[in-house]
Amino acid sequence: MILLFAVCLAFSGMTLLALAMKRHQPQILDRKLPEPRARLARWSGWACLAVSLVCVLQVWPTGLALFMAIGLFAFAGLPLVFLLPYQQRLAWRLAMALPIASGALALVSA
């Protein structure tokens, strides 16, 4: 379950990093973000990716975990690539809901 949580955090991190870019802000939110909020989205995105890496490090040894984390980040970014052109709002909603749902599921199953 921790790997599901890591994937969901990676998806949220990728979405927040996309939201930090001026190009994707109108796509996702229909408006531009002020610079402090864009900076907050950037830092939050990197924080989500870091927590995802920590989750992966708990499952595998360090060398394998780093390799798997890079693949996990790419795997988590793939749905975002497909959602941004067609369902921008869904990408934002999923980025907010998936970590909460997977975290609750991980806590219940533990």
Automatic annotation (TrEMBL):
Entry keywords, A to Z: Membrane, Transmembrane, Transmembrane helix
InterPro entries, per the entry: DUF3325
Transmembrane portions of the chain: 40-57, 64-84
The organism's place on the tree of life at top rank: Bacteria
Keyword Transmembrane carried by entry: yes
Protein name: DUF3325 domain-containing protein
UniProt source species: Alcanivorax profundi
